[in-house]
Amino acid sequence: MVNISPLLSVRHLLALSLVLNVSLMLSVILERAKLEERLNLHPMKPKQINISPLNGDREVADNGEAILNLDHGDPTMYEKYWHRMGDRTTVVISGWQFTSYFSDPKNLCWFLEPELAEEIIRLHKMVGNAITNGYHIVVGTGSSQLFQAVLYALSSDTTEPVSVVSAAPYYSSYPMITDCLKSGLYKWEGDAWSFDKDGPYIELITSPNNPDGFIRQSVVNRSGGILVHDFAYYWPQYTPITAPADHNLMLFTISKTTGHAGMRIGWALVKDEIVAKKMVKYIELNTIGVSKDSQLRAAKILRVISDGSGLAHRFDGETFFGFSHRIMELRWDLLREAVNKSRIFSLPNFTPEFCNYWGRVFQPLPAFAWLKCKDGIEDCETLLRGHKILTRSGRYFGVSPSFVRISMLTRDQTFNLFVQRLSRIHSWNEER
């Protein structure tokens, strides 16, 4: 029998082990690369990104039969971006976690997850669209619940119903939400432009405005009023960020910030501690807090945006705001081209402004198009419905039905069909 040196055997074993480990590592790397390629997770250079709405989805010839629902502001446009992010935004929650009602019992808003509060402050600071220092953060199940909490907080100590007003065209849900419970605490009083009633009032200021996209200020010039600012669309994909907002009560929602409408998360920045406590009390009575699962998912989404949108990467087309801003620019260009071809519609003209976030001048790119029918057409919603385009009439916003609101945040394929179909409408009487 041949004797093999023990030292030689160990060396051989070590060499063999090294070869096997290197082979295994290369195999793992190769498989990871293939997975990333399939899921589109690899960071791509801006010039490689094709986000034109004309090519975003497989193009389908428009036979005029598809119903295009652009009535709701369902932000499905953002699905493409978050799909590209793959598992970067994945949150894993074990069954034993978050069984308690309480998130932070020492905080004024005791059901606010600290992780979400931290990411909200971080994002506002990075974008520069709101001051957070000196404010209480109140989280809600979407901004709709926060709006109801605001009405309760600002009217609960009055002896008569507080008037609630907003300048037309105003957000179409304001009247319905205000009067749905027929509360004796507050009452919808309509257009702020014509409001002249004595007594306390709440003025709702949506800026940029839903539906027309213009920057808004208070219009009621009388004492006894409380202003509530809804900044759902004050983000750099929609409008120039000219200065950080610094008002007593400001509302935000993740649905229009990131596109996660189904998450049902909104937040309020509230200066007055008493008002904040009353809002928290309303949410406690209404839903005993806000879903922790949704809050943690929202925190992860905001963190991914902030991590990828620092100063060094801000202009990269792969960042969230860079990606979504470019899509909005392309969509507005396509819509204006379609309107010009049709010649019976018009769109608002916006004044370009310098944006502190982008460091350049650009024209607002609202989440909704405020379309007007010309040539004496009085009912624009009915005209478009005849072409199977569903929109929301101006009468729901307190103005003429010759206007309609159209969502700009739908999926690519729906938007493509919409602009194609719109460009072919030339009169009320043509065959539909």
UniProtKB/TrEMBL annotation:
One of its GO terms (molecular function) is transaminase activity. Belongs to the alliinase family. CDD domains: AAT_like. One of its GO terms (biological process) is amino acid metabolic process. Gene3D superfamilies: Aspartate Aminotransferase, domain 1 (3.90.1150.10), EGF-like, alliinase (2.10.25.30), Type I PLP-dependent aspartate aminotransferase-like (Major domain) (3.40.640.10). This is Alliinase C-terminal domain-containing protein. InterPro entries: Alliinase_C (IPR006948), Alliinase_N_sf (IPR037029), Ethylene_sulfur-biosynth (IPR050478), PyrdxlP-dep_Trfase (IPR015424), PyrdxlP-dep_Trfase_major (IPR015421), PyrdxlP-dep_Trfase_small (IPR015422). PANTHER family: BIFUNCTIONAL ASPARTATE AMINOTRANSFERASE AND GLUTAMATE/ASPARTATE-PREPHENATE AMINOTRANSFERASE-RELATED, TRYPTOPHAN AMINOTRANSFERASE-RELATED PROTEIN 2. It comes from Trapa incisa. The keyword Transferase applies.
